[in-house]
Amino acid sequence: MQVFPALADREKVKSCLTELADSSNAFKQALTAGIEQLVSTITPRIRPVLDSVGTISYELSEAEYANNEVNDPWVQRLLHAVETNVAWLQPLMTANNYDTFVHLIIDFVVKRLEVIMMQKRFSQLGGLQLDRDARALVSHFSVMTSRTVRDKFARLTQMATILNFEKVSEILDFWGENSGPMTWRLTPAEVRRVLGLRVDFKPEAIAAVKL
Fold it and tell me: At what angle do helices 95-117 and 75-86 cross, to 10 degrees?
């Protein structure tokens, strides 16, 4: 009021500020569209490695589980594909834009992995393997970006937790009032579906669990 005592001047300033806000929004939209377009050119180069995970068995014996510890079946191949196609862009982007870009790549990877894992069958050791795989992914992607990535992998990690159970009823130790600090990202229907991926869990036992 003191700087612009005249009403006409105040209206002009308001108009300028509105135009600035509109321009800012337009630039943000253009930036978002540009990053999404960049992601769409990179993901087809990563997808073949992701799709090959569909051929990996998670019905593991102790010998197979031990062998996987020495000869990683797919995680390192996927991370190499991500690094090859993503990391070279880091010097060319601002830190904030690069973080946004990496997180969109992570979204793509996690979404595809969830679909693939939901189509598999697991032994208990296979559940342990998935937990090991998810931890390796979280560890690597955490180094690639300054933003937290753990929440991106929460559903996959929770699937691994369920697939690690000794018996179906163990879910009740982690569900509802017993969930503690854990926030479940899987719905009750999804939990039952994941339990059903274990080769040794009986359908009637899964159906009997009250979630």
Answer: 150
